[in-house]
């Protein structure tokens, strides 16, 4: 049987890092070719094409670089001889880039984002095993038409659902609300369930001026007001529980309505979606009446990516509300 051809795009992250003896800490330093030389026997399962895009840590990723990466993935995946694409990425922002790609790429072919939690100078470097699992996922026919996937520690998750849950564990990427899509077992992709809903935001633009505010007990409106006065085009609020805020923040919400700045409400809880269950002052029902948009089960950082893309497409708050709420509320 002919081996499938997989393109691997390297962007940096711990998977590309070694400890620099001068500073005694890890920095990106390995090329795609150097990393692939550690993924022994990978040539027995697929033909690999290495593409070096960047050598940056996750926190250095930007919305503009995500857009460039999306365009590159698009060019590569449309080639007839390419079966799918793997992207290596720093895990700190991996879920944001993966979700960005999920919302913007139009392809049935598998796209997998992968990283590592231990760098190549550490005992138990998990880069090679994660890369091998990512390639095994991409060459599986079952990975077709699933949107963008995240593969780490032999677990396969949807970019739209997964989040980094632990600062150091190898088993850090979890879909806390729904559980994993599947696993890699003995080099084979085993699916536990299917994907029910997939969303696209058709835009080539991204609005970078979107802020994220986390709510704590007794907070006031100062950050919301500052954000609007300094030019934010949209704000995501990580609210409490089901999507509630202290009444002392309502002035800020009213100010946003006055200035036509969309506010998306998500929860600071790690799983479950927001809903207008409660009717007290500052609760979900009050926020909806004041024009806020519900962000489902997304964590703040992913709701922000979605709002940036929605604002890249339109400034119409009703259309943005549809992008977030249609089909789930
Ligand atoms: N495990 C990692 O990749 C974390 C690293 N700080 C990064 O995001 O680049």
TrEMBL record:
<dbReference type="InterPro" id="IPR027474">
    <property type="entry name" value="L-asparaginase_N"/>
</dbReference>
<dbReference type="InterPro" id="IPR037152">
    <property type="entry name" value="L-asparaginase_N_sf"/>
</dbReference>
<protein>
    <recommendedName>
        <fullName>asparaginase</fullName>
        <ecNumber>3.5.1.1</ecNumber>
    </recommendedName>
</protein>
<feature type="domain" description="Asparaginase/glutaminase C-terminal">
    <location>
        <begin position="209"/>
        <end position="324"/>
    </location>
</feature>
<dbReference type="InterPro" id="IPR004550">
    <property type="entry name" value="AsnASE_II"/>
</dbReference>
<dbReference type="InterPro" id="IPR006034">
    <property type="entry name" value="Asparaginase/glutaminase-like"/>
</dbReference>
<feature type="active site">
    <location>
        <position position="91"/>
    </location>
</feature>
<dbReference type="InterPro" id="IPR027475">
    <property type="entry name" value="Asparaginase/glutaminase_AS2"/>
</dbReference>
<dbReference type="InterPro" id="IPR040919">
    <property type="entry name" value="Asparaginase_C"/>
</dbReference>
<dbReference type="Pfam" id="PF17763">
    <property type="entry name" value="Asparaginase_C"/>
</dbReference>
<dbReference type="InterPro" id="IPR027473">
    <property type="entry name" value="L-asparaginase_C"/>
</dbReference>
<dbReference type="InterPro" id="IPR020827">
    <property type="entry name" value="Asparaginase/glutaminase_AS1"/>
</dbReference>
<dbReference type="Pfam" id="PF00710">
    <property type="entry name" value="Asparaginase"/>
</dbReference>
<comment type="similarity">
    <text>Belongs to the asparaginase 1 family.</text>
</comment>
<keyword id="KW-0378">Hydrolase</keyword>
<feature type="active site" description="O-isoaspartyl threonine intermediate">
    <location>
        <position position="14"/>
    </location>
</feature>
<dbReference type="InterPro" id="IPR036152">
    <property type="entry name" value="Asp/glu_Ase-like_sf"/>
</dbReference>
<feature type="domain" description="L-asparaginase N-terminal">
    <location>
        <begin position="5"/>
        <end position="194"/>
    </location>
</feature>
<feature type="active site">
    <location>
        <position position="14"/>
    </location>
</feature>
<dbReference type="GO" id="GO:0004067">
    <property type="term" value="F:asparaginase activity"/>
</dbReference>
<dbReference type="GO" id="GO:0006528">
    <property type="term" value="P:asparagine metabolic process"/>
</dbReference>
